[in-house]
Amino acid sequence: MSNWLIETEELARILGDGADRVVLDCSWYLPEADKHARDDFRAGHIPGARFVDLAEISDPASPYVNMLPDPALFAEVIGGLGIGNETEVVIYDAGYVSARLWWMFRFFGHDRLRILNGGWRKWRAEGRAIETGDAAPADPRTFRATPAPERVAALADVSAAIASGSVTLLDARTAARFDGHEGSGYPGVASGHMPGAINTPWALFFDAAQDYRFVTPERAAEIFASAGADLERPIITTCGSGVTAAILGFMLDALGHSGWRLYDGSWHEWGQQADTPKLIRPTT
């Protein structure tokens, strides 16, 4: 399995050992869900965990959701959670957001982090200790954010990649949204997919029979292969708003592919452009 993962058994063993470590709940819901994960955190979370809202570490000025913030904003929020550059961060959630935080931390130069395999669902299913209420106040730390722009793709990069046909473009959305048979998930955003994109839905990379642990690298390779994805070419991952695209990148990393890029604007940006092609798969 990936070296970026930590199992529930190990986390339970090291909780409270005094190490410079922060356990971070990054659960999040799409706007259409009409609820907030902070309320879930108050109802129950891993003891000592802190909560980070994806909206608070996204660009507030962008017309596109969940876009990378400037380094100063990320550093301010993360430092305010008691995380410094030497702090080990253990990320977990109740769904599919942890890989996005993993990618964001790495984009800003922080590699001392792991994702809890199976996340909150596995922790709770095993009957492990739970706290309720808000997190205890954190002592702010200095966090220096150093961006790595080579990890991200912009709209122009994706357009050029499609035109050249030289890049493998992987889309993590559900098949219904990729095919254009279901709404985009965001009001006013068109449906469909980009020319040449390959659909590898994010949910395939979690094993529901194993408390939603990530699938093995071998299984991930099979999923990519069955979709016809050429992993020997440069790779760009995309999705609805740049969140689940990071799951594909996480699995690519487990397979030894470290040079992939994430299209940060993803479909939320692409779908709102007047001049971008948006393909709909015919129904049979």
Automatic annotation (TrEMBL):
Its EC number is 2.8.1.2. CDD domains: TST_Repeat_1, TST_Repeat_2. Pfam families: Rhodanese. Residues 17-132, 163-279 form the Rhodanese domain. Keywords: Plasmid, Pyruvate, Repeat, Transferase. InterPro entries: Rhodanese-like_dom, Rhodanese-like_dom_sf, Thiosulphate_STrfase_CS, TST/MPST-like. One of its GO terms (molecular function) is 3-mercaptopyruvate sulfurtransferase activity. It is an enzyme of class 2 (transferase). SUPFAM superfamilies: Rhodanese/Cell cycle control phosphatase. PANTHER family: SULFURTRANSFERASE, THIOSULFATE SULFERTANSFERASE. This is 3-mercaptopyruvate sulfurtransferase.
